[in-house]
Every structure is written in C-alpha cells, then in structure tokens.
From TrEMBL:
GO terms for biological process: DNA damage response; fatty acid metabolic process. Gene3D superfamilies: Alpha-ketoglutarate-dependent dioxygenase AlkB-like. One of its GO terms (cellular component) is mitochondrial matrix. Its cofactor is Fe(2+). Coiled coil: none annotated. The gene is Dvir\GJ11670. This is Alpha-ketoglutarate-dependent dioxygenase AlkB-like domain-containing protein.
Length: 246
C-alpha cells in the first residue's frame, strides 16, 4: 500500500518534471536572439520572458472568443492616429466572465502572477493589417508582470533593449512627464541586441522584470512578420492581457 502510493507520487512528480522540461525547451525554440547579448542580460531575459505553448485548448479558445465577440464586433477598428503605439485595433476591458472562462483566467493568475492580478482583463483585437509599435507599458498603470493569451492567429513579438539611462532621464523629468498608457522610448536595432518571439495561437506569454521594463515590445506587421527567416502570416489576432498592480 505504502509502496504503491509512493510509486504513484514519484510517477506524478516525474510526469510534472517532463512537462516542465518540454515546456521550457519549446519556449527556447520560440525565441530568436539577435545582436550581441551580454551573457547576464540574456540569462535574465530567458528567465523573465516565457512562452507557454498550448496554454489553452481549441475549445477554450472558442469559448473565450464567443464571450468577447458580441461586444467586440460592435466596435470599429482604429486606424486614425499614426502617433499612437497601436494601429488597426479595437479594445475593451472585462471584469466579469462566464464561469468556464473565469476558471481559465484563474490559471493565468496562478501561473503568471502568484495570485496577484488586476481585476480588469484587457482585450485587444488587432486587425489583420494592424500593428503594435515598439513601446513600454507605463509604470504608472502596470506592475512588474504582463501576460497575454493569443487567440485566432500566430504572430511575432519583438523585444528591443532600450537605452536605460536615456529612458530613465526622460521619464523622471517632471516637465516632460508622459502620462500615456504606452510609452515609446527609442529602441534601435543597430549596435543593440533584441529578441524575436514566435507567439503561437493559444499560447500564453509572461513578460516580467527586465523584459517588461528594459525592452520595448511590439507585434510585427505582416510585411516584417518573420521568424527564423520564415514568413509568419498574422490574421486577425485577439489578445487577452492580464497585468498586476504597479
Ligand atoms: C499592449 C500590448 C500585446 C499583445 O496592449 O500594450 O503590448 O499581446 N499588447 O497584444
Ligand atoms: Mn504593451
């Protein structure tokens, strides 16, 4: 009796370990590093930018989409302001969810946030020709972790190292204080290092600490959307984004 209980427990633990290793291997193969990365920066980045492929099933994707669509389809995509960080999108926030979707968001809360999450979930619907330009979510409105589930489409997310000193100088300068939700510090590709991440449909990404503060993030538009040299066609993409308190 004791032996069989121990056997079951060991099998369970081994299964969990195999799953964790498989997940981290997958996550590595979904990241492509460009430029010369200082080793410590790369280690920190790998720890703080994670992708969990197949975080939700096809049925769960459908169920999320079905809850969002009636409201979302009534909004119009915004293409007007080229200065804005996002182009070709509509968005909303939701606090109350159907029980099935609530369960799934509870999983995000546990996996990505150790239980501490903002009650409003942000839903961003990007048109097929929409783009999210390089930006950093304002530290005024968002804490150290941002997570996103991708629905309906694969995409490529690029994270580019910002010039931390320049960025801090600017944001601490009261006269030019930026109250926008998404700040757009300069992040150049030349003489710099950055990473492209393949975000499969139904995956979850978890962006925290250095990845969240020291890198801009963006979703590449179709003309630039490539991973390891292969074009990644982005169709309509909905992301379910959770954040923690600043
Ligand atoms: C944002 C953002 C990323 C995503 O809304 O600020 O970066 O996955 N979204 O849609
Ligand atoms: Mn953002």
């Amino acid at each position: 009796m004791v032996i069989s209980y121990r056997g079951t427990l060991i099998r369970q633990i081994l299964r969990r370990c195999h799953r964790a290793v498989a997940a981290s291997k997958n996550s590595n193969s979904l990241t492509c590093f460009h430029g010369v990365w200082p080793p410590t920066e790369r280690r920190d980045f790998e720890q703080h930018m994670r992708i969990v492929p197949d975080f939700i099933s096809e049925a769960e994707e459908k169920q999320l989409h079905e809850e969002i669509e009636p409201y979302m389809s009534r909004l119009r995509y915004e293409f007007d302001h080229w200065d804005d960080a996002i182009h070709g999108f509509r968005e909303t926030e939701r606090k109350k969810w159907y029980p099935k979707n609530r369960e799934l968001l509870e999983r995000v809360r546990q996996v990505a946030f150790n239980g501490e999450i903002m009650p409003y979930v942000h839903i961003l619907d990007l048109a097929p020709d929409g783009v999210i330009k390089p930006h950093v979510d304002s530290t005024r409105y968002c804490g150290n972790t941002i997570s996103g589930i991708s629905l309906l489409s694969d995409s490529v997310m690029r994270l580019v190292r910002t010039d931390a000193e320049k960025y801090l100088q600017n944001s601490s300068n009261a006269s030019t204080e930026d109250t926008s939700y998404r700040q757009q510090p300069e992040a150049l590709l030349e003489n710099n290092f950055y990473a492209d991440l393949f975000l499969p449909r139904r995956s979850l990404y978890i962006m925290s600490h250095t990845a969240r503060y020291n890198f801009t993030h963006e979703i590449l538009g179709n003309e630039h959307s490539k991973f390891l040299g292969n074009p990644v066609k982005k169709t309509r993409r909905i992301s379910i984004i959770c954040r923690n308190e600043p």
